[in-house]
Recover the amino acids of this structure.
């Protein structure tokens, strides 16, 4: 009989007043008993609506059934038939708007905690298994992958399983893309990212770091000089946007990308870091997405009093509900219905505050969206750091150095549903195509592109 309890097993976690002073992982994970109990809440629906909500189509009822039986390794095998990054996805995927949003148990109570169970299964495997991936038999063909973020890792994994000789080219000195430089340690420990990357290496995938495609090597050279037969562009969307308001050139102004990269990739929060960062006393973060939450919670851990400024209300806040709740628990202030209009500086050129304008929401338009409208009422927030998190765009370097590659107005590469671009043999996916989105959507795009690349090479 299924466990018909209406609510999920809560996720054990550090206490807010403890975790907001360290960079250790907030969520501690289920015990075996909690995982089995939660898995037994699954009704194993014959229509499998949860699987339709998963961008990589994990057989969710099958893996949960294995957990309910206590067969955790069996559950891992089910997940990894579709996903190459289960320990990552179990932590950072927005399950509440994907698989869990389709769960039948969510109609009258809380859905099954699919993400927490995925994380448990991956962590159990990583803690207990000593087996290494075995490279597939070579098929004699070569593929290149640009970028080692979620889409690139997923694409490389699927190609390697098909026997391709795969090389990933990464611009930074560490593989992992946004998983390494964007998502903080307290949400996604970097040891997990490293383990996933090492798993790819065990499969025979080669990773070349410090290689900037379009500068160090061009796409033409990948084909003509290196002999690759197909190329996947998964270079992400790492070009930050700014507000273009007075004062954004003051000392103490950061893009969230720079702020998080220094903290996550270069460990700037450590006393012995070779890439230090100023520890603000009062920080203002503008934006309402997950990146804004990450920047705010990181600044809090550096010792700052933190205020998030967002021009809409809590109902429109795009960040994951869990991340918003964690930020509030950790003492971060939300200044909603406010919009920065000027960064204020002192006589030495350093940030001393932010001038904001009060906003109000209009009536819903035809799309149902309520637009923020300026009221003409202003106030000031004291600050010595201003961190901008209002979105990112794909870096134009690849498109500017590659002939025959169509791009969109915002800079994203034009690609069809399978990832094929306007240039034969070149495929693309993830944030490089869509702009900033989720890890799991990028992975889904990488998997589709891998299948299309295989089809393309076999048809030549």
């Amino acid at each position: 009989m299924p466990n018909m309890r209406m609510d999920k097993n809560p996720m054990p976690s550090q206490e807010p007043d403890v975790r907001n002073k360290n960079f250790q992982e907030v969520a501690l994970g289920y015990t075996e008993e909690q995982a089995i109990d939660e898995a037994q809440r699954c009704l194993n629906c014959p229509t499998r609506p949860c699987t339709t909500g998963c961008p990589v189509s994990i057989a969710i009822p099958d893996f949960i059934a294995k957990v309910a039986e206590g067969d955790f390794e069996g559950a891992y095998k089910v997940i990894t038939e579709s996903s190459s990054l289960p320990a990552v996805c179990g932590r950072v995927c927005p399950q509440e708007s994907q698989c869990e949003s389709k769960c039948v148990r969510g109609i009258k109570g809380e859905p099954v905690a699919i993400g927490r169970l995925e994380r448990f299964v991956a962590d159990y495997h990583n803690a207990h298994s000593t087996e290494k991936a075995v490279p597939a038999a070579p098929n004699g063909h070569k593929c290149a992958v640009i970028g080692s973020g979620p889409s690139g890792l997923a694409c490389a994994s699927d190609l390697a399983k098909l026997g391709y000789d795969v090389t990933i080219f990464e611009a930074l000195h560490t593989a992992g893309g946004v998983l390494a430089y964007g998502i903080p340690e307290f949400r996604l420990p970097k040891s997990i990212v490293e383990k996933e990357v090492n798993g790819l290496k065990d499969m025979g995938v080669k990773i070349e770091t410090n290689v900037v495609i379009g500068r160090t090597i061009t796409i033409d050279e990948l084909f003509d000089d290196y002999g690759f037969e197909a190329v996947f562009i998964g270079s992400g969307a790492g070009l930050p946007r700014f507000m273009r308001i007075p004062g954004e050139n003051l000392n103490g102004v950061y893009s969230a990308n720079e702020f998080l990269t220094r903290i996550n990739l270069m460990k700037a929060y450590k006393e012995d870091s070779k890439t230090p960062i100023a520890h603000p006393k009062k920080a203002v973060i503008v934006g309402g997405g997950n990146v804004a939450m990450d920047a705010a919670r990181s600044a809090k851990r550096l010792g700052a009093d933190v205020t998030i400024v967002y021009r809409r209300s809590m109902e429109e806040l795009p960040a994951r509900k869990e991340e918003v709740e964690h930020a509030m628990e950790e003492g971060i202030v939300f200044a909603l219905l406010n919009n920065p209009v000027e960064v204020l500086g002192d006589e030495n050129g350093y940030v001393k505050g932010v001038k904001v304008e009060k906003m109000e929401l209009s009536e819903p338009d035809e799309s149902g969206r309520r637009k923020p409208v300026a009221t003409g009422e202003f106030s000031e927030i004291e600050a010595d750091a201003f961190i901008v998190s209002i979105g990112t765009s794909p870096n134009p370097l690849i498109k500017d150095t590659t002939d025959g590659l169509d791009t969109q107005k915002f800079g994203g590469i034009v690609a069809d549903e399978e990832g094929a671009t306007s240039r034969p043999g070149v495929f693309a996916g993830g944030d490089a195509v869509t702009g900033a989105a989720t890890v799991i959507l990028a992975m889904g795009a990488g998997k589709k592109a891998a299948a299309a690349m295989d089809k393309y090479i076999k048809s030549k």
About this structure: The chain has a mean pLDDT of 95. The longest helix spans residues 439-458. The chain is about 35% helix and 15% strand.
